[in-house]
Amino acid sequence: MSLPPLRRSLLPRIALLASLVAGAVTAAHADEGPIIGVLIASGSLDRRLEVGPGGMVIEYPGGSEQVVAGSYLLRLDGTHARIADWRLPRTTPFRFRGLRSAVGVTTADGGDIRSYDGWIEVPAPGAEGDWEVINRLPLERYLLGVLPGETPTSLFDPEALKAQAVASRTYALFQVLARPGSRVHLRSDTRSQVFLGSGLVDEAARAAIEATRGQVLTSDGRIFEAFFHSTCGGATRPVEACFGGSPLDALTGVTCEGCGHSSRATWEARVSMETLGEVLAPICRRHGIELGAVRTIEPIDPSLGGHCAYVRVVHERGAFELESESFRRALLARKVRCLSTSFVVTRSGELMKFVGRGWGHGVGLCQYGADGYARKGYGYRAILEYFYQRSRIEALW
Ligand SMILES: [Zn+2]
Questions:
Q1: DSSP single-letter state for residue 131
Q2: Binning pLDDT at 50, 70 and 90, where does residue 10 land?
Q3: Separation of 344 CA from ligand 1 center, angstroms?
Q4: 274: domain range?
Protein backbone atom coordinates (compact mmCIF):
# COMPACT_ATOMS: atom_id res chain seq x y z
CA MET A 1 0.00 0.00 0.00
CA SER A 2 2.99 2.31 -0.12
CA LEU A 3 3.68 4.68 -2.93
CA PRO A 4 7.08 4.42 -4.55
CA PRO A 5 9.45 7.19 -3.42
CA LEU A 6 9.61 10.43 -5.37
CA ARG A 7 12.46 10.92 -7.80
CA ARG A 8 12.41 14.70 -7.85
CA SER A 9 15.80 15.15 -9.46
CA LEU A 10 14.73 13.19 -12.53
CA LEU A 11 11.83 15.42 -13.46
CA PRO A 12 12.20 16.51 -17.05
CA ARG A 13 12.26 20.06 -18.30
CA ILE A 14 9.21 21.25 -20.16
CA ALA A 15 10.62 20.65 -23.66
CA LEU A 16 10.97 16.95 -22.89
CA LEU A 17 7.78 16.93 -20.95
CA ALA A 18 5.47 17.50 -23.89
CA SER A 19 6.78 14.37 -25.63
CA LEU A 20 6.67 12.34 -22.40
CA VAL A 21 3.07 13.32 -21.80
CA ALA A 22 2.26 12.65 -25.45
CA GLY A 23 3.68 9.14 -24.96
CA ALA A 24 1.63 8.60 -21.84
CA VAL A 25 -1.67 9.63 -23.41
CA THR A 26 -1.74 7.02 -26.13
CA ALA A 27 -4.27 5.00 -24.15
CA ALA A 28 -6.53 7.99 -23.52
CA HIS A 29 -8.17 10.66 -25.62
CA ALA A 30 -5.42 13.09 -26.53
CA ASP A 31 -7.05 16.00 -24.70
CA GLU A 32 -7.66 14.15 -21.44
CA GLY A 33 -4.04 13.90 -20.33
CA PRO A 34 -2.11 10.82 -19.23
CA ILE A 35 -3.78 7.83 -17.61
CA ILE A 36 -3.02 7.88 -13.89
CA GLY A 37 -3.41 5.40 -11.02
CA VAL A 38 -5.21 6.45 -7.83
CA LEU A 39 -5.19 4.15 -4.80
CA ILE A 40 -8.82 4.15 -3.62
CA ALA A 41 -8.67 1.32 -1.04
CA SER A 42 -6.18 -1.12 0.44
CA GLY A 43 -5.97 -4.12 2.75
CA SER A 44 -8.59 -6.81 3.28
CA LEU A 45 -12.00 -5.28 2.74
CA ASP A 46 -15.73 -5.68 2.26
CA ARG A 47 -17.34 -3.03 0.06
CA ARG A 48 -20.66 -2.74 -1.70
CA LEU A 49 -20.56 -2.30 -5.47
CA GLU A 50 -23.39 -0.55 -7.31
CA VAL A 51 -23.45 -1.55 -10.97
CA GLY A 52 -25.56 0.70 -13.18
CA PRO A 53 -27.45 0.21 -16.45
CA GLY A 54 -25.37 -1.61 -19.05
CA GLY A 55 -23.72 -3.81 -16.42
CA MET A 56 -20.07 -4.34 -15.63
CA VAL A 57 -17.24 -6.42 -17.08
CA ILE A 58 -14.62 -8.21 -14.98
CA GLU A 59 -11.39 -9.18 -16.77
CA TYR A 60 -8.64 -11.51 -15.56
CA PRO A 61 -5.84 -13.43 -17.30
CA GLY A 62 -7.51 -15.85 -19.69
CA GLY A 63 -11.11 -14.80 -19.19
CA SER A 64 -13.83 -12.29 -18.47
CA GLU A 65 -17.25 -12.13 -16.80
CA GLN A 66 -20.27 -9.93 -17.44
CA VAL A 67 -22.24 -8.70 -14.43
CA VAL A 68 -25.72 -7.23 -14.83
CA ALA A 69 -26.89 -4.06 -13.09
CA GLY A 70 -27.41 -4.47 -9.35
CA SER A 71 -25.84 -4.26 -5.92
CA TYR A 72 -23.01 -6.70 -5.07
CA LEU A 73 -20.50 -7.37 -2.31
CA LEU A 74 -16.80 -6.99 -3.19
CA ARG A 75 -14.71 -8.96 -0.71
CA LEU A 76 -10.92 -9.15 -0.70
CA ASP A 77 -9.64 -11.51 2.01
CA GLY A 78 -6.79 -13.83 2.97
CA THR A 79 -7.46 -16.36 0.22
CA HIS A 80 -9.74 -14.94 -2.46
CA ALA A 81 -11.25 -11.96 -4.25
CA ARG A 82 -15.02 -12.23 -4.51
CA ILE A 83 -17.72 -10.25 -6.27
CA ALA A 84 -21.12 -11.77 -5.41
CA ASP A 85 -20.80 -15.53 -6.28
CA TRP A 86 -17.80 -15.07 -8.56
CA ARG A 87 -14.32 -15.59 -7.10
CA LEU A 88 -10.63 -15.75 -7.94
CA PRO A 89 -7.64 -16.84 -5.81
CA ARG A 90 -5.57 -13.92 -4.50
CA THR A 91 -2.73 -14.92 -6.81
CA THR A 92 -4.75 -13.76 -9.84
CA PRO A 93 -5.01 -10.08 -10.76
CA PHE A 94 -8.28 -8.73 -12.15
CA ARG A 95 -9.96 -5.49 -13.14
CA PHE A 96 -13.52 -4.31 -13.65
CA ARG A 97 -15.42 -1.35 -15.07
CA GLY A 98 -18.95 -0.20 -15.79
CA LEU A 99 -19.93 -0.64 -19.42
CA ARG A 100 -22.22 2.39 -19.74
CA SER A 101 -21.98 4.11 -16.34
CA ALA A 102 -19.53 4.54 -13.48
CA VAL A 103 -19.34 1.80 -10.81
CA GLY A 104 -20.27 2.85 -7.27
CA VAL A 105 -18.08 1.65 -4.39
CA THR A 106 -18.83 2.30 -0.70
CA THR A 107 -16.20 4.03 1.40
CA ALA A 108 -14.33 2.24 4.19
CA ASP A 109 -16.90 3.10 6.85
CA GLY A 110 -19.65 1.63 4.69
CA GLY A 111 -21.31 5.00 4.27
CA ASP A 112 -21.07 7.05 1.09
CA ILE A 113 -21.01 5.60 -2.37
CA ARG A 114 -18.31 7.01 -4.61
CA SER A 115 -18.60 6.35 -8.31
CA TYR A 116 -15.61 5.66 -10.51
CA ASP A 117 -15.13 5.96 -14.26
CA GLY A 118 -12.46 3.89 -15.93
CA TRP A 119 -10.93 0.61 -14.88
CA ILE A 120 -10.70 -0.41 -11.26
CA GLU A 121 -7.64 -2.67 -11.01
CA VAL A 122 -6.89 -5.16 -8.27
CA PRO A 123 -3.33 -6.52 -8.67
CA ALA A 124 -2.50 -9.90 -7.10
CA PRO A 125 -1.05 -9.05 -3.68
CA GLY A 126 0.89 -12.30 -3.30
CA ALA A 127 0.87 -14.34 -0.10
CA GLU A 128 2.04 -11.58 2.26
CA GLY A 129 1.16 -8.34 0.51
CA ASP A 130 -1.80 -6.01 0.97
CA TRP A 131 -4.64 -5.80 -1.49
CA GLU A 132 -4.66 -2.56 -3.47
CA VAL A 133 -7.68 -1.20 -5.32
CA ILE A 134 -6.57 1.25 -7.99
CA ASN A 135 -8.72 3.47 -10.21
CA ARG A 136 -7.06 4.13 -13.56
CA LEU A 137 -8.39 7.08 -15.49
CA PRO A 138 -7.27 10.12 -17.51
CA LEU A 139 -5.95 13.05 -15.50
CA GLU A 140 -8.67 15.48 -16.68
CA ARG A 141 -11.43 13.13 -15.49
CA TYR A 142 -9.60 12.55 -12.21
CA LEU A 143 -9.88 16.31 -11.54
CA LEU A 144 -13.70 16.03 -11.63
CA GLY A 145 -13.47 14.12 -8.34
CA VAL A 146 -10.72 16.33 -6.86
CA LEU A 147 -12.15 19.84 -7.05
CA PRO A 148 -15.29 18.97 -5.04
CA GLY A 149 -13.06 17.17 -2.51
CA GLU A 150 -10.64 20.06 -2.12
CA THR A 151 -12.84 23.16 -2.33
CA PRO A 152 -16.40 24.22 -1.48
CA THR A 153 -17.25 24.47 -5.19
CA SER A 154 -20.71 25.97 -4.65
CA LEU A 155 -19.25 28.80 -2.55
CA PHE A 156 -16.00 29.66 -4.33
CA ASP A 157 -15.65 32.20 -7.13
CA PRO A 158 -15.22 30.56 -10.59
CA GLU A 159 -11.76 32.11 -10.96
CA ALA A 160 -10.66 30.54 -7.66
CA LEU A 161 -11.91 27.16 -8.92
CA LYS A 162 -9.90 27.60 -12.13
CA ALA A 163 -6.80 28.38 -10.03
CA GLN A 164 -7.46 25.19 -8.02
CA ALA A 165 -7.92 23.15 -11.21
CA VAL A 166 -4.51 24.25 -12.54
CA ALA A 167 -2.82 23.69 -9.15
CA SER A 168 -4.38 20.22 -8.73
CA ARG A 169 -3.53 19.24 -12.34
CA THR A 170 0.08 20.35 -11.81
CA TYR A 171 0.35 18.55 -8.46
CA ALA A 172 -1.03 15.34 -9.97
CA LEU A 173 1.18 15.50 -13.05
CA PHE A 174 4.22 16.00 -10.82
CA GLN A 175 3.35 12.77 -8.96
CA VAL A 176 2.88 10.90 -12.25
CA LEU A 177 6.20 12.06 -13.71
CA ALA A 178 8.03 11.43 -10.43
CA ARG A 179 6.92 7.76 -10.42
CA PRO A 180 7.63 6.51 -13.93
CA GLY A 181 6.37 2.99 -14.60
CA SER A 182 4.40 2.87 -11.34
CA ARG A 183 0.82 1.59 -11.10
CA VAL A 184 -0.07 3.99 -8.28
CA HIS A 185 0.65 7.71 -8.48
CA LEU A 186 -1.70 9.24 -5.94
CA ARG A 187 -3.75 8.39 -2.89
CA SER A 188 -7.36 9.51 -2.62
CA ASP A 189 -7.03 11.46 0.65
CA THR A 190 -5.17 14.50 1.98
CA ARG A 191 -1.85 12.65 1.76
CA SER A 192 -2.16 13.46 -1.98
CA GLN A 193 -5.39 15.24 -2.93
CA VAL A 194 -8.91 14.33 -1.82
CA PHE A 195 -10.53 12.34 -4.68
CA LEU A 196 -14.26 11.64 -4.37
CA GLY A 197 -14.57 9.63 -7.60
CA SER A 198 -14.92 11.03 -11.10
CA GLY A 199 -18.57 9.98 -11.43
CA LEU A 200 -19.49 12.94 -9.22
CA VAL A 201 -21.53 15.56 -11.08
CA ASP A 202 -20.46 19.07 -10.08
CA GLU A 203 -21.06 21.65 -12.79
CA ALA A 204 -18.92 24.39 -11.17
CA ALA A 205 -15.96 22.00 -10.99
CA ARG A 206 -16.53 20.76 -14.53
CA ALA A 207 -16.60 24.34 -15.89
CA ALA A 208 -13.32 25.26 -14.13
CA ILE A 209 -11.58 22.11 -15.39
CA GLU A 210 -12.88 22.62 -18.95
CA ALA A 211 -11.81 26.28 -19.01
CA THR A 212 -8.24 25.36 -18.04
CA ARG A 213 -7.94 22.00 -19.84
CA GLY A 214 -4.31 20.88 -20.11
CA GLN A 215 -2.92 23.94 -18.31
CA VAL A 216 -0.14 23.35 -15.80
CA LEU A 217 2.34 25.48 -13.87
CA THR A 218 6.07 25.38 -14.45
CA SER A 219 8.98 26.89 -12.55
CA ASP A 220 12.21 27.32 -14.47
CA GLY A 221 10.71 25.14 -17.20
CA ARG A 222 9.84 22.26 -14.89
CA ILE A 223 6.66 20.89 -13.44
CA PHE A 224 6.87 21.30 -9.65
CA GLU A 225 4.92 20.00 -6.68
CA ALA A 226 2.25 22.71 -6.65
CA PHE A 227 1.27 22.51 -2.98
CA PHE A 228 -1.87 24.22 -1.75
CA HIS A 229 -3.71 24.54 1.55
CA SER A 230 -6.98 25.88 2.90
CA THR A 231 -6.09 29.15 4.64
CA CYS A 232 -2.69 30.76 5.21
CA GLY A 233 -3.89 33.27 7.82
CA GLY A 234 -1.89 36.20 6.43
CA ALA A 235 1.15 34.78 4.61
CA THR A 236 2.21 31.54 2.92
CA ARG A 237 5.42 29.70 3.85
CA PRO A 238 8.55 28.87 1.87
CA VAL A 239 8.51 25.17 0.95
CA GLU A 240 11.87 24.41 2.58
CA ALA A 241 10.67 25.82 5.92
CA CYS A 242 7.84 23.30 5.99
CA PHE A 243 9.04 20.21 4.13
CA GLY A 244 12.83 20.68 4.10
CA GLY A 245 14.84 20.28 0.89
CA SER A 246 15.89 23.09 -1.42
CA PRO A 247 14.11 26.40 -1.85
CA LEU A 248 12.08 26.79 -5.03
CA ASP A 249 11.28 30.10 -6.74
CA ALA A 250 7.61 29.17 -7.16
CA LEU A 251 7.19 28.19 -3.51
CA THR A 252 8.55 31.15 -1.60
CA GLY A 253 6.21 32.70 0.94
CA VAL A 254 4.02 35.68 0.03
CA THR A 255 1.70 37.86 2.08
CA CYS A 256 -2.01 37.19 1.58
CA GLU A 257 -4.92 39.54 2.11
CA GLY A 258 -7.50 37.22 0.63
CA CYS A 259 -8.35 34.63 3.27
CA GLY A 260 -9.88 36.76 6.03
CA HIS A 261 -13.34 35.34 5.23
CA SER A 262 -12.25 31.76 5.98
CA SER A 263 -13.77 30.33 9.16
CA ARG A 264 -10.23 29.15 9.96
CA ALA A 265 -8.63 32.61 9.58
CA THR A 266 -8.16 32.46 13.38
CA TRP A 267 -8.63 29.55 15.76
CA GLU A 268 -8.01 28.34 19.29
CA ALA A 269 -7.12 24.88 20.57
CA ARG A 270 -6.65 23.67 24.12
CA VAL A 271 -4.73 20.64 25.27
CA SER A 272 -4.27 19.25 28.77
CA MET A 273 -0.73 18.85 30.03
CA GLU A 274 -1.40 15.12 30.36
CA THR A 275 -2.36 14.77 26.67
CA LEU A 276 0.56 16.96 25.65
CA GLY A 277 2.89 14.59 27.52
CA GLU A 278 1.32 11.63 25.67
CA VAL A 279 1.80 13.38 22.32
CA LEU A 280 5.45 14.11 23.05
CA ALA A 281 6.40 10.79 24.70
CA PRO A 282 6.75 8.67 21.51
CA ILE A 283 8.67 11.47 19.75
CA CYS A 284 11.05 11.67 22.71
CA ARG A 285 11.49 7.89 22.80
CA ARG A 286 12.49 7.91 19.12
CA HIS A 287 15.15 10.54 19.80
CA GLY A 288 16.39 9.13 23.12
CA ILE A 289 15.13 12.14 25.10
CA GLU A 290 14.01 11.60 28.69
CA LEU A 291 10.90 13.73 28.96
CA GLY A 292 10.08 15.42 32.26
CA ALA A 293 6.90 17.36 33.06
CA VAL A 294 6.34 19.89 30.29
CA ARG A 295 6.55 23.55 31.35
CA THR A 296 6.18 25.60 28.15
CA ILE A 297 6.00 25.35 24.36
CA GLU A 298 7.60 28.23 22.44
CA PRO A 299 7.36 28.83 18.68
CA ILE A 300 10.91 29.37 17.30
CA ASP A 301 11.79 31.77 14.45
CA PRO A 302 8.32 32.73 13.32
CA SER A 303 8.66 33.77 9.68
CA LEU A 304 6.40 35.85 7.48
CA GLY A 305 2.85 35.47 8.72
CA GLY A 306 3.92 34.04 12.06
CA HIS A 307 4.51 30.42 10.91
CA CYS A 308 7.24 28.87 13.05
CA ALA A 309 9.69 26.31 11.68
CA TYR A 310 10.34 24.77 15.12
CA VAL A 311 8.86 24.68 18.58
CA ARG A 312 10.97 24.58 21.72
CA VAL A 313 9.66 22.26 24.41
CA VAL A 314 10.84 23.21 27.88
CA HIS A 315 10.39 20.46 30.47
CA GLU A 316 11.69 19.86 33.96
CA ARG A 317 14.74 17.90 32.73
CA GLY A 318 15.79 20.27 29.95
CA ALA A 319 14.59 21.49 26.57
CA PHE A 320 14.54 20.32 22.95
CA GLU A 321 13.33 21.54 19.58
CA LEU A 322 10.89 19.87 17.23
CA GLU A 323 9.85 20.61 13.66
CA SER A 324 6.64 22.53 14.00
CA GLU A 325 4.82 20.64 11.23
CA SER A 326 5.57 17.24 12.82
CA PHE A 327 4.47 18.60 16.19
CA ARG A 328 1.22 19.92 14.67
CA ARG A 329 0.51 16.58 12.97
CA ALA A 330 1.16 14.71 16.22
CA LEU A 331 -1.38 16.99 17.96
CA LEU A 332 -3.92 16.49 15.15
CA ALA A 333 -3.50 12.72 15.47
CA ARG A 334 -4.69 13.13 19.09
CA LYS A 335 -7.68 15.23 17.96
CA VAL A 336 -6.12 18.47 19.19
CA ARG A 337 -7.18 20.95 16.49
CA CYS A 338 -3.87 22.73 16.02
CA LEU A 339 -4.74 23.89 12.49
CA SER A 340 -1.49 25.54 11.37
CA THR A 341 2.05 26.38 12.46
CA SER A 342 1.19 30.06 12.98
CA PHE A 343 0.34 30.21 16.68
CA VAL A 344 1.20 31.57 20.11
CA VAL A 345 1.00 29.36 23.18
CA THR A 346 -0.04 30.28 26.70
CA ARG A 347 -0.35 28.07 29.75
CA SER A 348 -3.06 28.27 32.33
CA GLY A 349 -2.65 25.66 35.10
CA GLU A 350 -3.02 22.21 33.55
CA LEU A 351 -4.13 23.56 30.15
CA MET A 352 -2.00 24.75 27.24
CA LYS A 353 -3.83 27.11 24.89
CA PHE A 354 -2.85 27.60 21.22
CA VAL A 355 -4.19 30.71 19.47
CA GLY A 356 -3.42 30.56 15.78
CA ARG A 357 -4.12 31.70 12.25
CA GLY A 358 -4.88 29.67 9.12
CA TRP A 359 -5.46 26.00 8.33
CA GLY A 360 -2.99 23.66 6.67
CA HIS A 361 0.74 23.55 6.00
CA GLY A 362 0.78 27.07 4.51
CA VAL A 363 2.82 26.25 1.38
CA GLY A 364 1.78 27.34 -2.15
CA LEU A 365 -1.74 28.41 -3.08
CA CYS A 366 -3.95 29.66 -0.23
CA GLN A 367 -7.37 28.38 -1.36
CA TYR A 368 -9.45 30.89 0.59
CA GLY A 369 -6.92 33.55 -0.41
CA ALA A 370 -7.52 32.64 -4.07
CA ASP A 371 -11.26 32.98 -3.46
CA GLY A 372 -10.77 36.34 -1.72
CA TYR A 373 -8.63 37.73 -4.56
CA ALA A 374 -11.07 36.36 -7.16
CA ARG A 375 -13.90 38.22 -5.41
CA LYS A 376 -11.80 41.39 -5.69
CA GLY A 377 -11.71 40.87 -9.45
CA TYR A 378 -8.42 39.04 -10.04
CA GLY A 379 -8.39 36.31 -12.69
CA TYR A 380 -7.00 32.82 -12.08
CA ARG A 381 -3.78 33.54 -13.97
CA ALA A 382 -2.95 36.55 -11.78
CA ILE A 383 -3.83 34.56 -8.65
CA LEU A 384 -1.58 31.64 -9.62
CA GLU A 385 1.29 33.89 -10.66
CA TYR A 386 1.10 35.57 -7.27
CA PHE A 387 0.96 32.49 -5.03
CA TYR A 388 3.45 30.60 -7.22
CA GLN A 389 5.97 33.38 -7.77
CA ARG A 390 7.85 33.45 -11.11
CA SER A 391 5.86 30.46 -12.36
CA ARG A 392 4.37 30.18 -15.85
CA ILE A 393 1.15 28.60 -17.06
CA GLU A 394 1.67 26.27 -20.03
CA ALA A 395 -0.90 24.21 -21.93
CA LEU A 396 0.31 20.61 -22.39
CA TRP A 397 -2.79 19.12 -24.05
ZN1 LIG B 1 -4.29 33.35 2.69
A1: P
A2: very low
A3: 18
A4: 266-357
